[in-house]
Amino acid sequence: METLDKIKSQISENSILLYMKGSPKLPSCGFSSQASQALMQCGAPFAYVDILQNPDIRAELPKFANWPTFPQLWVGGELIGGCDIIMEMFQTGELQPIIAEAAKADEAAE
């Protein structure tokens, strides 16, 4: 599978997807740590892709997303943004309902 197809597939198959360095339990950078912590505090399950283990995705995703940095949060097939945006939305209370809605859609699909 081509890298771009893999990315599109991951985004379409996961309502809440975080591209990050490391894993939520063992993040490899401070920004990924903050982003995954905020998502975990939203209380909904989410998928993640460790871009350090997937250099092809690390190289291609910024071009596809038109977003140069990681982490990247995708919800419902749409790019939400990186760490700064995730944290700002979390602190203002904007992120929680978006995550809850996406999680509810996942439950309904099962």
UniProtKB/TrEMBL annotation:
<dbReference type="Pfam" id="PF00462">
    <property type="entry name" value="Glutaredoxin"/>
</dbReference>
<dbReference type="InterPro" id="IPR036249">
    <property type="entry name" value="Thioredoxin-like_sf"/>
</dbReference>
<keyword id="KW-0676">Redox-active center</keyword>
<protein>
    <recommendedName>
        <fullName>Glutaredoxin</fullName>
    </recommendedName>
</protein>
<feature type="domain" description="Glutaredoxin">
    <location>
        <begin position="16"/>
        <end position="80"/>
    </location>
</feature>
<dbReference type="InterPro" id="IPR002109">
    <property type="entry name" value="Glutaredoxin"/>
</dbReference>
<comment type="similarity">
    <text>Belongs to the glutaredoxin family. Monothiol subfamily.</text>
</comment>
<dbReference type="InterPro" id="IPR014434">
    <property type="entry name" value="Monothiol_GRX"/>
</dbReference>
<keyword id="KW-0479">Metal-binding</keyword>
<keyword id="KW-0001">2Fe-2S</keyword>
<keyword id="KW-0411">Iron-sulfur</keyword>
<dbReference type="InterPro" id="IPR004480">
    <property type="entry name" value="Monothiol_GRX-rel"/>
</dbReference>
<dbReference type="InterPro" id="IPR033658">
    <property type="entry name" value="GRX_PICOT-like"/>
</dbReference>
<keyword id="KW-0408">Iron</keyword>
